[in-house]
Amino acid sequence: PLRLEPEYFVHIQDVFNQLGALWCNRQGHSQGMNFLRRAQIMYERRPEKIRQEVEQKAADNYTLTMFYLAQAYGALRKPGLSARFCAETMSRQLDHNTSGDRPSEAIERDPFDCKDWVRNCCS
């Protein structure tokens, strides 16, 4: 299927994230969770071809999936799951921004603010 091709994978993943966020913002949490869980499972089961060709973009989209799931579970009054996905999001952000793999252009365009990250951890 086309969804397993690198040039389509990240776009479909992004669409699932956007639809999930949209439904959750409209109070349609079950529909939103359906799309977000699809994005999650899609990433977790990604084929080797995706890992080799578009891994960073797929990983960035997955971090957004984790963030949206944390928000959605919070809205559904499931604080344990919300905290779990929030912690995963924060961990992924820290790993991404402190790995030393980011190009200087990316750092200039989107600098990592340690104080902001700590503030988010505490809230």
Question: Unreliable stretches, pLDDT < 50, 5 or more residues?
Answer: none
The Rg value, from CA coordinates, equals: 15 Å
Task: Tell me, rounded to a whole number, the average pLDDT.
Answer: 89
Distance between the termini: 41 Å
β-sheet strand percentage: under 5%
Number of helices: 7
Q: Helix fraction?
A: over 70%
Largest beta-sheet characterization: none
Task: Specify the structural class.
Answer: mainly alpha
Q: How many extended strands?
A: 0
- Helices and strands, in order, run as HHHHHHH
- The coarse silhouette is flat
What does this molecule look like?
This protein is mainly alpha-helical and 123 residues long. Helices cover 80% and strands 0% of the residues. The protein is built from seven helices and no strands. The model has no long low-confidence stretch (mean pLDDT 89).
Sum this structure up briefly.
The protein has 123 residues and is mainly alpha-helical. It is 80% helix and 0% strand.
